[in-house]
Inverse folding.
């Protein structure tokens, strides 16, 4: 294991080497036994992680007071007046027929899927699932999207 590998596994698995996978842990412990700079790196990262955990646990009553004040104000606030008329009675028929429920989740999902499809299609990464999977296909549609040309015979 090299120092770069150790840094990668340190970021991926955390500073507690005993929780790393068995083969990685053995190589990391061997590297820690021989390399002082790796031991210093682990000590530095452990100290940083400890400071971050300590800072996250140091909440006081003063830290939660604004949130309590907002929650109290919201619970004591009166509800807005509700219309006693059913929407069907005052909306035009053509508007009711459109079935206007909140559309933003559907639009957001559509935009997300379009972005995901574009990113997968324009990337040069090989598509495969799992550690031993073989790539199904590698595509690059960025040339078609960003440099469109006339489609003629023999282009596709």
């Amino acid at each position: 294991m090299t120092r770069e590998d150790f840094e990668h596994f340190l970021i991926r698995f955390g500073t507690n080497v005993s929780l790393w996978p068995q083969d990685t842990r053995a190589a990391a412990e061997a590297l820690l036994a021989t390399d002082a700079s790796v031991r210093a790196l682990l000590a530095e990262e452990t100290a940083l992680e400890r400071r971050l955990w300590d800072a996250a646990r140091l909440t006081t009553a003063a830290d939660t007071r604004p949130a309590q004040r907002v929650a109290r104000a919201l619970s004591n606030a009166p509800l807005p007046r509700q219309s006693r008329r059913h929407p069907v009675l005052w909306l035009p028929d053509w508007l009711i027929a459109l079935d206007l429920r909140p559309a933003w989740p559907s639009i957001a999902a559509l935009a997300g899927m379009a972005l995901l499809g574009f990113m997968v299609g324009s990337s040069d990464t090989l598509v495969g699932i799992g550690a031993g999977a073989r790539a199904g296909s590698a595509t690059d549609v960025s040339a078609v999207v960003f440099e469109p040309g006339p489609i003629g015979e023999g282009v596709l």
